[in-house]
Specification:
heterodimer; A: two-stranded antiparallel sheet; two-stranded antiparallel ribbon; 25 helices; B: alpha/beta; 9-stranded mixed beta sheet; 12 helices; about 35% helix
Amino acid sequence: MLEASRLIAGLAVAAAGLLPASWAGAAAMGPKEAYHLLNRAGFGATPQEVAQYARLSRAQAVDKLFRESVAAATTPPPESALEYLPPGRLRGMSEEERKALFREQRETAIDLRGWWVREMLATPSPLSERMTLFWHNHFVSSLQKVKSAKLMYRQNELLRRHALGNFRTLLHAVAKDPAMLIYLDSATNRKEQPNENFAREVMELFTLGEGRYTERDIKEAARAFTGWSLDPRSGEFLWRMGIHDHGVKTVLGRTGDFDGDAVLDILLAQSHTAEFIVEKLWREFISPVPDPAEVRRVAWGFRNSGYEIKTALRELLLSWAFWAQENRGVLVKSPVDWVVGSLRQFGFQVADPLPFVFVLRQLGQDLFAPPNVKGWPGGEAWINSATLLARKQFAERLFRADASMTAGMPPAPGERSRTAGKSADAGRERLLRAVRELRFDSRLWLAETERAGLTPEAVMLATAPERESVPQAQGIQRIRLLALDPAYQVK
Amino acid sequence: MERRDFFKVLAAAGVAAWLPRSGWAATPAAYRNLLVLVELKGGNDGLNTAVPYADPEYYALRPRLGVQRETVLQLDSRTGLHPRLAPLLPLWRAGELAVVQGIGYPEPNLSHFRSIEIWDTASRSDQYLQQGWLARAFAAYPAPADFAADGVVVGSQELGPLTGSSGRTLALANTEQFLRNARLAAPAGNSRNPALRHILKVEADIAQAAAKLGASAQPLHTEFPKGEFGNAVRAACKVVAGSPGVAALRLTLNGFDTHQNQPGLHGNLLGQLAEGLAALKAALVELGRWDRSLILTYAEFGRRPRENQSNGTDHGAGSAHFALGGKVRGGLYGAPPMLRQLDGNGNLAFAVDFRSLYATVLERWWGIPAFNVLGGRYPILPILDG
């Protein structure tokens, strides 16, 4: 199998750019390669999923992933996240009322995170969730500034709807998304007092990349974006012609009475944009070091397709680099990879995702709240002494014993101090119950893994184990040792 | 612009490594001088911390939020401390507390994230640097090998000034828990895969630090305040007590983003801060380390002088910060706030560039050439003896 895959990889190298991608890898890929694809394109994979994909060729497998992608979540959102609360409601409230409101908002924000974790665990298309998360970390907005669970939920819906759709459509929609209008201050960008925040980030972080525009381009673009505003009563996008700057602007060498959409089209007409997005996809799916020639090739097709995201992703997932042995284990698992991947892979039954909201925060990936507009830096930055020990502690507890995990999880950090009195007790109680209800049957999992033609190592480690104690261990102890191995932190 | 280009050229030419490291010995004994950074996260209100109680403009801008003259702890004829900072008064009287007013930087950014990034990386307002300023210092001048670590971040997932460290950085919330969990890390291994290499290095740092921290713990009798910050102070002191050495510690006190209902919240936070710092001093005295400790507070920004409609304050610019320690020359530094000369956004002008604080730490506390770390020259503040 290894030889065959080398041969195919070699062929693909030779044929790159000459042959249609579907030619590369016409044979059944086998379980190990199937696991690699499912793990990188989704979050872990169960032995059954691996067995199913192992029979397919690479191209068939990628097509299946795309065919089964979804544009909407299967889990209903928390009721509380569907309610829009206009700003200014604090006025005239008593101290008690405000406190109650803040507590309610905190709980809504936690429920919203729990909803997404649940969706990532339940989704029939992990690729769709991975891409939704990818765009969340690209078109960053944060609850910390937006302060409305409803608007963040709606942005999340938007990102999922276009996650594997069209980048042009997505960019235009995100630029008018209410949460984004708040997060990057578009809502306060007016003719007399332009705010450059969105104009700067749309060039630096969303399309062109740093250094491919001038300060003057930013100033001019900011003028074009004036008038894209928000109706504070409804939380909807609002075109306010009165504060739009109708003057002539010059952006990236083009001159006219541009509005925001016209500027976005100018950015999309630059070849840098496709390359910038493809590079970022490369770092998400393949390795931390994009290959410039390959990026140009894939970006050319991406742009020519009118920015169809699947076109770019298909090329990347079928590229020689995606399958190359030297690119195995070179990506550090994000906290979501680690937590959701582990839970999905081992078939944990999760009745209540609440504990994992806090585990993710403890590991450094607080959903709906990336640290800043650049998003989570990712890669090696995921791992420091605190987060690495937290991962290992979590692994130890997940795989402590088959039946019971009551001694279980790390406590919810901050939960105790953030909520007062009764609600803290209720929160703790819910947390403990959620942990008690977690179930994992290691014997069943090991049997199914064997039946799928796999070993625990093959589906848990992308590279050889670093620690020697692993091979001797059996049963759940072996799973635990593998999960504690440094190699379990990479994919 | 020019300075950055110059710095880039230097770095590209590898000149930084070649530059004479004035007065720098191979084993930097100066790291026996401990730096403790305390982040007042969210942006502390400097005006209600070091209060310009003699300035009528202060009360005009803050009719509801102004700290009443009668309650201010007067330091001189125009500046006083918030009453909840009373636990710091013994330090002030002992001449061990410096209050530096008007700390900030040009073209202030009012976003929490961006501004703390500017502080953590010691960058200009329009400059993006990957590494924290302490990470850069330790990369060029590592702490001695027998130290438990270069720097320890206590109780926060964000490494702040230690971000992007190539040296030995630890993050922990609690020393007992750290030592308990450290058994999960093994001290060996290397890999050609950079991701694995990083993970193995973090494991090795954990294992080595745990061995050093566990081996030499001095008992500690000081009582620490209850609560999250008290626990962090306790953990920091345990690190000092248990380790043959650590050059820098960073603690965080959360919650200073007081847009609403500021008086109670802020008073409470300052109370926690003052009690925590008093306990920190007591423990460092007990450990015989007080004369070799320098404690600095910092935050992403101060608050706007004019109070807002919600009984709070919005993001501002310049602010006041504390320096304390056995070798600190107590007193008021910087410049009192010029409340009649606010900028276009209604914010205070700055009098002291925050990088002057860093330069003072590097040059005077550790004997490191600050230019090599900060990429520019900033006046040294005379806040240290000798």
